[in-house]
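Recall from the previous lesson that a structure prediction takes nothing but the amino acid sequence as input. Here we apply that procedure to Alkylation response protein AidB-like acyl-CoA dehydrogenase from Saccharothrix texasensis. The sequence below is the only information supplied.
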Amino acid sequence: MTMPMPDDHPLGPPADERSWVRVATELAAGFAATTDEADRTARLPVENLRALHAGGLDQATLPRELGGQSLSYRTVGAVLRVLAAADPSTACLWLMHIGAAEGLVRHGTPELARYYADELIAGRRFANALSEPSGGNQFLSPQQVAEPVDGGYRLTGAKRFVSGCEIADHFLVNALVDGQPTLFGLEPDHTVTFEPQDTLGLRATRSHLVGLNGTVLRSDRRCPPSPVPKPNHIAAGLAWLSLGIADTALDTLVRYARGRTLPSTGRPLADEQHLQFDVADAVLRLEAAALVAHNSAWLADRDSPHFLPSALRAKPTANRVARDIAQLCLQVGGGSGFVATSPIQRIFRDAQTGWLMAHSVEFCLNHIGTEVVRAPGEQP
Ligand SMILES: Cc1cc2nc3c(=O)[nH]c(=O)nc-3n(C[C@H](O)[C@H](O)[C@H](O)COP(=O)(O)OP(=O)(O)OC[C@H]3O[C@@H](n4cnc5c(N)ncnc54)[C@H](O)[C@@H]3O)c2cc1C
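The prediction returns the following tokens.
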């Protein structure tokens, strides 16, 4: 549908990792069969997550020294795009899973890193419990304070939209400790509760409100402060979720337009020139958004200081394209796409989520705009 990236393109997955994209592509073909049913019933696609683990993808994301393959951000991006095109909820759950595990492995002491790597290899599930109800975009600067108690810090509060929380064996949680944002690994006990939120899009992620009711964050699961921000899967990966949704929106609208004959002309809807112009515009924007994401992943693989600014560009660019192509898909589907049994309404709802997820499009635009218009040397 869009121009394929040549295999030897430097921004694409490295040659020795392309087999992982093939693994994901084969699995995704099976996942697509249950996407709409899992969305309708808001059921966690646990079997998909198990298949990704069994296929070796979870372990491959770990650093080599911990038994993984140090999979590049370029490859993880391509994998996420393929998964999101087939089942966006599965892709989101997998991203949060490997992202939380990466956080605990990377920020932990060597002993903790080994522990969490072994847990990921053994098939345990990870989730991010970072966003607070008072302001999800400030998830790196928590407001909730954990008070010192024997063996750790007690936290009473809540985390919002925690994808896959009900099956998580480990949470990556943050809280204010001595006035500093501090990360912990948390194994849920009876003090951790789940309150359904039933999000409008990505329903199968079951991104619930997690209550922490006097929960003790153990000192021996506390991550030491991180010296410098590094590329990470979630910052790098969110753009790719939207690209996958945009791929499916484009594919769906073109198939529908080819198959729908207009009674007034006796010709397929696809023959209408206004639609061809809209589709051409969608293709151009999707190809451009994909290149921005590929470039950002390439910067992440080089551990470049330009990665974070590039991720703040890649994400909103992809989020907007997904939302706009899903809107066009709904427009082309007309009334047939606006009924609960149509995959088009599900694609339309799923396409809204990337925009909201932190950092939201407005947050990114605010950041970029401020940087651009500020006078040289002027402080924010
Ligand atoms: C399907 C789904 C799955 C998710 N999964 C997870 C998960 O697994 N773990 C997790 O921790 N979180 C998860 N989230 C939460 C997500 O990452 C965001 O934190 C959350 O969606 C944002 O919450 P909010 O809208 O309440 O944020 P708010 O920050 O309150 O934003 C409200 C509004 O203010 C705007 N705004 C905020 N800050 C700025 C700014 N600086 N400049 C300009 N505008 C601004 C926003 O754009 C938005 O319009 C998920 C969310 C969704 C929708």
